[in-house]
Amino acid sequence: MPDLAQILNRLDREMRADGDWGEVAAYIPELARVPKDRFAIAVVTADGSLYRAGDADEPFSVQSITKVFTLAIALGRSGDQLWHRVGREPSGRAFNSIVQLEQENGRPRNPFINAGAIVVTDEVLSGREPREALAEIVQFLKTACGSDDVYINNAVAASETAHGHRNFALAHFLASFDNLLNPPDLTLGTYFHHCALEMSTVQLARAGRFLVNAPDLPRLISATRVRRLNALMMTCGHYDGSGDFAYRVGIPGKSGVGGGILAIVPNVASIAVWSPGLNRYGNSAKGTEALARLTRLMDWSVF
């Protein structure tokens, strides 16, 4: 078997040697402050072993990666009735498309584009105060990664709120089609805050352990739901770049505009990678490349 520790160190060297870091998500001013020249990768294998390289202990804004965890919570609360409100198909459009939402009568294409994640957040919020919903989301992540050192960055949440005009438009579109149960401002406030969660790459890799579905790793949801979440990550986890990611990397993954990617090799490993510079799809440029090289070197694929 290839030496995983050596491979991660090699990837760290290779990523840093290439000067093309991509572009940070400047439309969220707080994220624009993050230096582009950061790279980290961490892997937790099915036996619980941790391997890491680069800036793996540096916290970063996980952004849309939290949509995986909020979806797990929403399905636990509401079951399959959630799918009456949101679909399960790849979008083929930008993650914040208003046109698609209008064309499809207020039912988002999948739970990982912004409109779909707003609906999922609305489902988690239903019947509770935002602080209670956020407490559940944060606690779920703390339990998943086995650490209490997981926090919401309020400056990032405020930055997203101040500049989230398109998300407000999406929420009001959803409300106009009676697909929000709560006032748009309450749902969006909850959404912006859980996207502003900060974790390190090591924490994120550990948080993804429950999706590996291995005997020695945590089991937070049923095996059936694990398979469903991985399927959605595979087909929809990288927005309109999901097909390209599946082709290049070959395993389920969920990206965030903070530059993180959580990827799962079913029954084998949970992988987290972070590099803030993004490619044209809004996914980590070096993170995607590192995962493509890692899966090739380790012969990891669901195909």
Brief rundown of the structure:
The chain has 303 residues and is α+β, with helices and mostly antiparallel strands. 47% of the residues lie in helices and 11% in strands.
Q: What is the architecture of the largest domain at the second tier of CATH? A: 3-Layer(aba) Sandwich
Estimated radius of gyration: 18 Å
Element order: H for helix, E for strand: HHEEEHHHHEHHHEHHHEEEH
CATH class descriptor name of the largest domain:
Alpha Beta
**Distance between the amino and carboxyl termini:** 19 Å
The percent of residues in helical segments reads 40-55%
The CATH topology name of the largest domain reads Beta-lactamase
Largest sheet report: 5 strands, antiparallel
Per-chain topology:
Blueprint: H1 4-17, H2 29-32, E1 40-45, E2 50-54, E3 60-61, H3 66-78, H4 98-103, H5 114-125, H6 130-145, E4 151-152, H7 154-163, H8 165-176, H9 184-195, E5 197-199, H10 201-207, H11 223-236, H12 242-248, E6 253-255, E7 260-265, E8 269-274, H13 285-298
Antiparallel strand pairs: 1-2, 1-8, 3-5, 4-5, 6-7, 7-8
Helix pairs in contact: 1-13, 3-5, 5-8, 5-9, 6-9, 6-10, 7-9, 8-9
Structure description:
The protein has 303 residues and is of the alpha+beta class. It has 2 domains: 4-62 and 199-298, DD-peptidase/beta-lactamase superfamily (Beta-lactamase, 3-Layer(aba) Sandwich), CATH 3.40.710; 64-197, Beta-lactamase. 47% of the residues lie in helices and 11% in strands. The protein has helices at residues 4-17, 29-32, 66-78, 98-103, 114-125, 130-145, 154-163, 165-176, 184-195, 201-207, 223-236, 242-248, 285-298; strands at residues 40-45, 50-54, 60-61, 151-152, 197-199, 253-255, 260-265, 269-274. The strands form 2 sheets. A 5-stranded antiparallel beta sheet has the order 2-1-8-7-6, with helices on both faces. A hairpin with a 4-residue loop joins strand 6 (253-255) and strand 7 (260-265). Helix 7 (154-163) packs across helix 9 (184-195) and helix 8 (165-176) packs across helix 9 (184-195). The longest helix is centred in the middle third of the chain and has 16 residues, at 130-145. It is globular. The model has no long low-confidence stretch (mean pLDDT 95).
